[in-house]
Specification:
By secondary structure, this protein is mainly α. The protein has 13 helices and 8 strands. Among the domains are: 135 residues, Up-down Bundle (Butyryl-CoA Dehydrogenase, subunit A, domain 3); 160 residues, Butyryl-CoA Dehydrogenase, subunit A, domain 3 (Up-down Bundle).
Length: 478
């Protein structure tokens, strides 16, 4: 917020990132701890800001650059999250396989049964892909790549989903013993469930990957549509004039003709080339380039089939996004295995990795083709009808019997009260702002002139170097 030079009123110009500490006036901690399913090593309080005045020296980075700070934090946060769940998944994989090798039923180890072998193979394949994607992503960060939001979103979505599935499969292999706390797996099972929710839920990530990842192609298709297709909001004369002009413009035709050939004649774009891949991986490289070619084609077809409805048909968005996620996993795994082969790795661990990559390509190729088929023929319409009917029935149930979010339009007291007696609280005083008699939107008056004067004062900022430690005071001299 900056003051308008003429009116003196504060106006929004960019977003600031601020450092706010609990000891600042107006920071209200009203619940000192909440009981979480996992990550119990940290306590979680609830707080709100009530007319908190943050000093200018607490601006993080530069004024108006707060969004850049937030997006940068998301990129790094999604990588560290992925690193954590990747480590947990690797440990769970090894524990699950060891249990399957040593736990006997019917005079045979569990690992002899094919459904257990399927779990073992899938755990090995996706943990390899998680590791490859993570190092591909952190390499981009280390090189200072800037526009990597899609890649970090893909890495986060893949690692959080498949990482927890690996842990869940390891627990399934261990059976009831895996559910017992002494084997430690259940803690990993609890701790890692949160990762598909935080740092942007995976459902949000799917829509983001679809929209932001396909932005350039979507803009190209819209420009062609606006130039050449009939607009029923325009007159006949205006339509004919616009279409004829566009149809005789070389720049428009250069974009429109290849696109039209793909959408209406079924011609696919040429597949990309992967040069210098290790000869032992040529089959996988050919599979990858073919899948990329088909993915590009189906993205255009989905946009054609759905038209404006693609914005709200998130099931179709998810299919496109999931294929993009799988392709990034395959590309990263191919790169990592290529490096291992060229480095001359050998031994049981390498053979495990090599077999995992071969299976990953076979498995994901089929997953991607299944999504292609469901883009064309799916049960989305009956799904929406079933959801609508279920929602209508739920509206007949009394909200008093269920938990309702306190921010619901129904009001803070619409649902039943969650029990809190069992939750230990850390020391500290606080008042629940929900118990304060204050009208919605009501707040203390801010003196605009004082705020503007404070913001205009020059701020001394350091150069980032650590300060020399000051000598400790001598208690005998004080």
């Amino acid at each position: 917020m900056v003051p308008d030079p003429e009116t003196g009123e504060l106006e929004q110009q960019g977003v600031n990132a601020l450092i706010v500490t609990p000891d600042m006036e107006g920071v209200e901690v009203f619940e000192n701890n909440r009981a979480k399913t996992g990550i119990r090593g940290t306590w979680q309080a609830r707080f709100r800001f009530n007319d908190v005045r943050v000093p200018a020296e607490n601006v993080l980075h530069e004024e108006g650059k707060g969004l850049k700070v937030a997006l940068s934090c998301l990129n790094y946060g999604r990588c560290t999250l992925s690193a954590g769940v990747t480590g947990a998944a690797k440990a769970a994989r090894d524990q699950g396989i060891k249990w399957a090798q040593t736990r006997y039923q019917f005079e045979r180890p569990l690992a002899d049964f094919e459904l257990v072998q399927q779990k073992i193979a899938r755990m090995s394949a996706v943990t390899y892909a998680m590791d490859a994607m993570l190092y591909m992503m952190t390499g981009m960060l280390d090189r200072g790549e800037t526009d990597i939001m899609v890649e970090t979103a893909i890495t986060k979505a893949f690692c959080s989903e498949f990482g927890w599935k690996v842990i869940d499969e390891a627990m399934q292999i261990m059976g009831g013993e895996g559910y017992m706390t002494e084997h430690e797996l259940e803690r990993s099972w609890r701790d890692n469930r949160i990762h598909s929710i935080v740092e942007g839920s995976n459902e949000v990530m799917q829509s983001f990957i679809f929209a932001y990842g396909g932005k350039q192609l979507a803009e190209k298709m819209v420009s062609i549509q606006e130039a050449l297709l009939w607009d029923f909001d325009e007159s006949i004369g205006d339509n004919l004039s616009r279409i004829l002009t566009a149809a005789t413009t070389p720049a428009v035709l250069k974009k429109a003709l290849p696109m039209g050939a793909q959408l209406f004649l079924g011609l696919k774009p040429s597949a990309p080339e992967l040069r210098s891949v290790h000869a032992a991986l040529q089959e996988q490289a050919d599979t990858l380039t073919s899948l990329i070619q088909k993915h590009s084609h189906y993205f255009k077809l989905v946009s054609k089939w759905e038209r404006e409805d693609v914005v709200k048909h998130q099931a179709q968005q998810a299919r496109v996004a999931n294929n993009a996620i799988c392709l990034f996993a395959l590309a990263s795994s191919l790169s990592k295995m290529d490096d291992q082969l060229r480095s001359g790795e050998y031994g049981p661990e390498f053979e495990r990795d090599r077999a995992a990559v071969e299976y990953l390509f076979d498995w994901f190729e089929r997953k991607i083709h299944q999504n292609f088929g469901e883009m064309r023929e799916n049960a989305d319409e009956s799904m929406r009808e079933a959801a609508e009917a279920a929602r209508a029935h739920n509206d007949t149930l009394s909200s008093e019997d269920f938990y309702v979010h306190e921010g619901s339009p129904l009001g803070r007291d619409a649902g039943k009260e969650p029990p809190t007696e069992h939750i230990p609280q850390f020391d500290g005083d606080g008042q629940d702002p929900r118990e304060v008699d204050r009208a919605p939107g009501e707040t203390y008056e801010l003196d605009v002139e004082d705020v503007a004067e404070e913001m205009a004062e020059p701020t001394e900022r350091g150069n980032g170097a650590s300060e020399e430690p000051s000598p400790a005071s001598d208690p005998e001299r004080s």
